[in-house]
Amino acid sequence: MKWLTSSFILMLIVLITSCIVLNNRVSEVNHVDYATKSNLKIHLNNGSLVISPDGIEVSNAGDSTFITPALGATMYDLHRNQLQMPARIWLDEVVFVENYSKEISIASLPGTAAAFTGGAALAVLIFGSCPTFYSTQGEFPVLEGEGFSYSIAPRFEEDDLDRIISGDSQDGLFSLSIRNEAWETHYINQFNLISVDHPPGFEAFPTYERSMFFKQKKQVLLMGPTVESLVVRSKSGNNISSLIQERDELSYRSDAALTDAMVIDPSVEDWLELEVQVPDGKKEVVIGFKLRNTLLNSLFFYEMLLDRQNFEAIDWIDSKNSELIYAMNFYRWYTSVFGLKIDVEKNGKYVEHERIGDTGPSAWNYLAFTLPVYGNGKQKIRLRFIPDNWEIDWIGLSMEDQMKTTMQPLELIEVMHRGKQTTAHTAAQLEEVDKEYLVTSPGEEYKLKYAVPSLVQGMERTYFIQSRGFYMEWLRKHWLEPANGEEMREPLKLNQELIRSLYQSWDKKRIDFEHDFFKTMVPINELN
Fold first, then answer.
1. Residue 478 host element (H or E)
2. How far is CA 426 from CA 185, 278, 414, 444, in A?
3. Residue 135 DSSP SS3
4. I need a labelling partner for 27 at 20 to 30 A (CA). Which of 218, 251, 314, 404 fits?
């Protein structure tokens, strides 16, 4: 991927702004089509920013639409100098509208990274993927994980734990970076590098900790040597063991026939079945995964939840922040539909024991769970999920007994941002779960270095990224405005018809969506 330089971005802004004149139209106002009191940031295609903490009104004037910010709104230019607030903003000047948390980010003014998005480029700005975490191997960053991928509002703030696969310490230091490569604002409450020392022959994996609301990745589970000849069959009866026995380029995705079937019957599930011989007296086994989401989740979020609601998407996002009951019901519905369920056969029937939530589409995710064994002899395990929502690269099963381990946070000794060291301030924001957040905008990067203690002889070490936070999606203008001839949408209904519509769209758009998604990652801007 070619990265846009800061000078190129600024040059493009000059070209864009040279042909833009704000708010010079006079036309008869018809009526107010939409109004909200949500806290909003409005990003304009000349790089300006309007902050309206008490909402907006959307009205028509002839064939055009304009936004009227509430009293108390402020406007800033490209360099974040305050401007005189205009009475109205024409919708065709808008690039993004962003809900924000007033208590956290009122002073956070995004830099120039989003300003090059004017004109025709709007149609393809689809990338979104939570904070992305990289290890640094020489000059080359390596993607290690995505933080709290389901936390799409403050109500859904949660912990995450990502196993580091490629990175390692060099000269007693471990280098990581936090990037915002998406059209989102990231609110990072905690970010730590964790080390886990363990005996050879065991691997350390993140696992879930149960709670009343969320099941968060907060603990580490040690997994011993795995069964060599694990047999895995798909719902269609095919032996797919060769696809999931190694951590390689081969992986399992659902058959096209199952995705086609969802258009007719949105209750269809795909599943994989494992059958393994368990020694007499064995009470538990450990199952491990390397997997990630396909882009089906992303299309659902963008098109079904946001684009389909037009301006009502603003209030829908706000409802997840202000209405606890709605947020809980949405979470339960979403995880019941999109989660990967792990069932264990008991007395001829499958019983659900674990459920894996959204992990994100960018980085491979490693997880492990302890499952009960019912009876002696053969034990069957079934993995259930809606078709083509998961890509599974590896499944392992271990009969070894569990071992206890300790998670050791490492010392953060340096933070670099925009070429300057900011250790004390940023460390205070990242080390503890509190009300202090590191707020990042598209194109921002923080580079961190940690001190690594010596490893005891005869032990092995695995590193993890411990993170906590949430993010707020920037609503694209074409999501907000109704298409030609389209009426304003009715309130969102979470039901099977919504899932049927998703698969109808997935059938038509999957190839182009997968082709374009990662090409629209936001370039890292050292000046931002």
1. helix 477-480
2. 17, 50, 9, 14
3. strand
4. 314
